[in-house]
Automatic annotation (TrEMBL):
Domain annotation PAC: ranges: 225-277
Catalysis performed (reactions): ATP + protein L-histidine = ADP + protein N-phospho-L-histidine
SUPFAM superfamilies associated with the record: ATPase domain of HSP90 chaperone/DNA topoisomerase II/histidine kinase (SSF55874), PYP-like sensor domain (PAS domain) (SSF55785)
Domain (PAS): residue spans on this chain: 134-178
Pfam families: HATPase_c, PAS_4
Coiled-coil zones: 279-341
UniProt EC number: 2.7.13.3
Protein name: histidine kinase
Native organism taxonomy: Bacteria, Pseudomonadati, Pseudomonadota, Betaproteobacteria, Rhodocyclales
Residue ranges annotated for the Histidine kinase domain, each copy included: 350-596
Gene3D superfamilies named among the record's database cross-references: 1.10.287.130, Histidine kinase-like ATPase, C-terminal domain, PAS domain
Alphabetical keyword list: Coiled coil, Kinase, Phosphoprotein, Transferase
Organism: Denitromonas ohlonensis
CDD domains listed in its UniProt record: HisKA
Enzyme class at the top of the EC tree: transferase
Length: 606
């Protein structure tokens, strides 16, 4: 054929040559780069159009765009004097007849310039376009491919069974090539293999029946199917194989065969199985451990619960102990205080008793002395009347007058009654102190318990001390409704009196004394006396209940008021508490039981 084309050179083609080419079945086309300047009827028939249509369009106008582009490039290269290799083109579209051509090109020169002659050599029914050597190379590639592969043609005959396939299946190529028995490699009885099903366009049901649960359409290779399975007949003890079967298509897209590749995945599968086994064991171990952990956690939670309960119990005990300790401390303090007071009380009682008698007869003697003195003075008056009747130079009179001057009789007369009065006052005061001491030491325990309204007592006491208070402070009364209490009212009045007088003394005018009554609980009442006075420093506070402790000047305070009050309140089974801030003021709280525990239940006094 190429010789025929070469013979055209250098003259333009003649109808004879064209006829000759047509006779050989080759269409011809001559052009100068655009529309054909010559085309023959054979070509028109080959391209499926009329001859005139061929002349009406560019030389490379083909219905297949790739083919058209190849033809254009070949034509233009040839026209430009470059090498123009033969190109393959396709005409027609499936499902209509598709035809394949090899197009050769040759550059010709005539008077009008260069032109190109294309000869269309039909290859439609020819063997693959590859020349035999190419085919041999392909066969060799497939044969020596490291991946096991075999190929079936459209008749399901084995065309290729490569060496890797021989190794994996143990069946040599000559035994299978040309047969329809590729199943022999894998199965005991005839049945379709994957490649057969590609050729048969097997549906999903058929695939599922033959490869239950182990097949799927390939996500990588179009129209391919993949599957995996265990084949006991392969190798010594069976092999796991992964199959991939795909259609082989001709240039027109039609299926011209099917290729199936096989991959030995036994090792992977063994590893996977081992892994699965290990996983199973691990999961079992983890489950065991989790159970043990859960049990340990439960035990721990129980422990924690127990410990928390124990801690709470401990805390409760600690709080109780702390409270007990505080109570003990209070009790101890009270005990110390009361013991101190009791011993001082005994001392006071002793001293009072010792002083009581002498001061009694001193007072009575002073009273007698007063009477005697009056008598004596009266006697002196009558002596002085006698003196008036005597001669001024009477020696006896002169001696008396001299003696009178010596003893300063006039002053004596004047001073003696004053001395006696002062002595009587002093002795009376001593007697008052002795009485207070006796009260403090409860030497006089004859009083009886009566029910009394203590507000009434406070009010009468206020009247008594009014003189002490009124110049210093105004009195604010906050009286809550409180019940009558069982008490010794005159003793309590002494307590209120001392607290009120102390409050007044503490205040630098003008200030306020606030009296509050309240009922802290069902069994007690409380009287609080607050002042806006100087307050009590801590050091002083520790000592104020001691008898004779006073910060007041000599003659102003005996220091017995609070100790006496303390004794009275204690005798009433009550207590005295102090809130004091130096510079701001002091509050004394007197808390008393409504009913005396050891007194007989007697009706309220008023
Ligand atoms: N309301 C108060 N404000 C400041 N200090 C006070 C108050 N009440 C008592 N005191 C202090 O307590 C001391 C003792 O008081 P207490 O009543 O026992 O004795 P006194 O008042 O000094 O003397 P007496 O009461 O015998 O006349 C007082 O000297 C004073 O220092
Ligand atoms: Mg006082």
């Amino acid at each position: 054929m190429p010789d025929g084309v070469a013979a055209l050179r250098p003259s333009p083609p003649t109808e004879l040559w064209c006829d000759a080419l047509a006779l050989a079945g080759h269409g011809t086309l001559l052009h100068r780069g655009e529309h054909p300047v010559w085309a023959d009827a054979t070509l028109a028939e080959q391209l499926g159009c009329t001859l005139s249509a061929l002349y009406d369009r560019p030389f490379h106008a083909l219905d297949d765009a790739n083919s058209a582009e190849r033809l254009r490039q070949q034509g233009e290269a040839c026209l430009a004097g470059r090498d123009a290799a033969p190109v393959d083109i396709t005409t027609g579209q499936p499902p209509c007849a598709v035809r394949h051509f090899e197009v050769r090109a040759r550059r010709l020169e005539d008077a009008a310039g260069p032109q190109v002659l294309h000869v269309f050599i039909e290859r439609t029914n020819a063997a693959p376009t590859h020349d035999p050597s190419t085919r041999a190379v392909l066969d060799q590639i497939i044969r020596e491919l490291p991946i096991a592969a075999f190929i079936l043609d459209t008749e399901h005959r084995v065309t290729h069974w490569n060496m890797a396939c021989e190794r994996i299946s143990g069946i040599t190529a000559p035994r299978l090539i040309g047969t329809r028995d590729p199943w022999r490699a894998f199965f005991d009885a005839p049945r379709p293999v994957m490649a057969d099903m590609i050729l048969d366009h097997a549906d999903a049901d058929t695939l599922e029946r033959l490869y239950p649960g182990s097949w799927q359409r390939s996500t990588h290779t179009p129209d391919a199917i993949e599957a995996e399975g265990f084949y006991p007949s392969l190798g010594e003890s069976g092999r796991w194989i992964y199959f991939l079967a795909a259609p082989l298509r001709g240039a027109d897209g039609s299926i011209i065969g099917a290729i199936e590749t096989l991959q030995d995945i036994t090792e992977r599968k063994t590893a996977e199985n081992a892994l699965a086994l290990t996983n199973e064991r691990l999961e079992a171990i983890v489950a065991d451990r989790t159970r043990e952990l859960a049990e340990a956690n439960a035990r721990l939670a129980e422990d924690i619960d127990q410990r928390e309960t124990a801690e709470q119990e401990l805390l409760k005990r600690y709080i109780e102990l702390t409270e007990l300790n505080c109570q003990l401390h209070d009790a101890q303090e009270q005990l110390v205080q009361s013991e101190k007071l009791a011993s001082i009380g005994q001392l006071a009682a002793g001293v009072a008793h010792e002083i009581n008698n002498p001061i009694g007869y001193v007072l009575s003697n002073i009273t007698s002395l007063g009477g005697y003195l009056d008598d004596l003075l009266r006697l002196f008056d009558s002596f002085e009347a006698l003196e008036a009747g005597r001669a001024p130079d009477d020696p006896a009179l002169l001696a008396v007058q001299k003696l009178k001057q010596e003893v300063d009789f006039d002053f004596l007369k004047e001073d003696l009654p004053a001395l006696l009065r002062e002595s009587e006052e002093g002795a009376s005061r001593v007697r008052k102190i002795v009485a207070d001491l006796k009260d403090f030491s409860h030497a006089d325990q004859t009083q009886e318990w009566v029910w009394a309204n203590i507000v009434k007592g406070i009010e009468s006491t206020l009247n008594v001390v009014n003189n002490e208070v009124k110049y210093k402070a105004s009195v604010a009364r906050h009286y809550a409704e409180i019940p009558a209490i069982q008490c010794m009212p005159s003793q309590l009045n002494q307590v209120f009196m001392n607290l009120l007088v102390n409050a007044a003394h503490a205040i630098e005018a003008p200030g306020t004394i606030t009296i509050t009554t309240s009922q802290p609980d069902a069994e007690h009442v409380r009287v609080s006396i607050a002042d806006t006075g100087c307050g009590i420093p801590e050091a002083v506070k520790a000592r104020i209940f001691e008898p004779f402790f006073t910060t007041k000047g000599v003659g102003k305070g005996t220091g017995l008021g609070l100790s006496l009050s303390y004794g009275i309140v204690q005798n009433h089974h009550g207590r005295i508490d102090i809130d004091s801030t130096p510079g701001e003021g002091t509050t004394f709280h007197v808390t008393l039981p409504i009913q005396q525990p050891d007194a007989e239940r007697t009706p309220a006094a008023d």
